[in-house]
């Protein structure tokens, strides 16, 4: 980011993963209520529920500043792909974002970098912002390869045409997801600086304002420290985003 570039507006995103029945919409209403009462507007807020909750959550969020996103999309706009969801379908429901390449999809569904890039292209085509996830495993970090692995994964997972408007990067060390473990602030700073650098080399000035999120065991107790790290423009929060009581202090740390 150059001195003339405006700092990115923070984004605090909740990834509900495969959690939440209709009753969980009470948490969303509670969160929207807290946001409205706070009167604060310093960050963008996003919830990515399972597909079954997208439509009712869109209704629950109507009139609120909290955006809606999907957790995955297919690369094609339609067709014979049983169980899959097109980016266009997400946009049709009012989604503005879609997570692509989450490590759980890379691990559990064998998604490759090329497939992730195709999904990010689909998101662009549908007018959505893709949140492209990257992160190293514990073995890769212990071998001193975290930065090399993450930057290579990132470059292979991003299609042409990425801008700060259609792309957000989420750095999520695989070993930190759902474990209660987090990297040190210095390690996060080093990775985010490396990500910013390779984005600049690939996309030029447009990368200066691309939002870089940290994800992996973000909680109320560590959010302020992690969100204050240089080049951390927000968080992707899993477990702690399921309850308004746990999510709100994380939101407030950057609001
Ligand atoms: P966690 O998940 O906050 O539960 O560690 C983060 C994520 O996977 O996005």
Question: How does this structure look, described?
Answer:
The protein is α/β, with parallel strands linked by helices. The chain has a domain at 84-255: TIM Barrel (Alpha-Beta Barrel). It contains 10 helices and 8 strands. It has helices spanning 25-38, 54-60, 87-92, 103-108, 113-125, 138-142, 146-157, 185-203, 220-227, 244-252, and strands at residues 11-15, 44-48, 66-70, 97-100, 129-134, 167-171, 211-215, 234-237. It has an 8-stranded parallel beta barrel with strand order 1-2-3-4-5-6-7-8, surrounded by 6 helices. Helix 2 (54-60) links the parallel strand 2 (44-48) and strand 3 (66-70). The longest helix is centred in the C-terminal third of the chain and has 19 residues, at 185-203. The radius of gyration is 17 Å and the shape is globular. The relative contact order is 0.17. 2-phosphoglycolic acid binds next to strand 8.
What distinguishing features does this structure have?
255 residues; alpha/beta; binds 2-phosphoglycolic acid
SSE pattern, N- to C-terminal: EHEHEHEHHEHHEHEHEH
Class of the domain at 84-255 in CATH? Alpha Beta
First CA to last CA: what distance? 21 Å
The count of DSSP E runs of length 2 or more, i.e. the number of strands, is 8
The percent range for helix content is 25-40%
As laid out across the biggest beta sheet, the strand order is: 1-2-3-4-5-6-7-8
Query: What Rg, in angstroms, do the CA atoms define?
Result: 17 Å
Helix vs. strand class: alpha/beta
- The CATH superfamily name of the domain at 84-255 is Aldolase class I
What is the number of helices?
10
Name the beta content range.
15-25%
Shape: globular
């Amino acid at each position: 980011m150059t001195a003339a570039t405006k700092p990115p507006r923070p984004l605090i995103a909740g990834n509900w993963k495969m959690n939440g029945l209709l009753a969980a919409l009470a948490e969303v209403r509670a969160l929207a209520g807290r946001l409205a009462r706070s009167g604060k507007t310093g960050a963008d807020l996003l919830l990515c529920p399972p597909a079954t909750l997208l439509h009712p959550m869109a209704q629950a969020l109507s009139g609120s500043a909290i955006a809606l996103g999907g957790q995955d999309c297919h690369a094609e706009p339609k067709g014979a792909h049983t169980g899959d969801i097109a980016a266009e379908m997400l946009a049709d429901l009012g989604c503005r974002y879609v997570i692509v390449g989450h490590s759980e999809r890379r691990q559990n569904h064998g998604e490759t970098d090329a497939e992730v890039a195709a999904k990010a292209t689909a998101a662009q085509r549908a007018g959505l912002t893709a949140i492209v996830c990257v992160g190293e495993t514990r073995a890769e970090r212990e071998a001193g390869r975290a930065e090399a692995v993450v930057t290579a994964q990132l470059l292979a997972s991003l299609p042409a045409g990425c801008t700060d408007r259609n792309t957000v990067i989420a750095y999520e060390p695989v070993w930190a997801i759902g474990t209660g473990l987090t990297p040190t602030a210095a390690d996060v700073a080093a990775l985010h600086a490396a990500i910013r650098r390779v984005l600049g080399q690939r996309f030029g000035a447009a990368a200066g304002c691309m939002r870089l999120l940290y994800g992996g065991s973000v909680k109320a107790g560590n959010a302020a420290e992690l969100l204050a790290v240089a080049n951390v423009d927000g968080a992707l929060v899993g477990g702690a985003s399921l309850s308004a009581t746990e999510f709100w202090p994380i939101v407030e740390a950057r609001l």
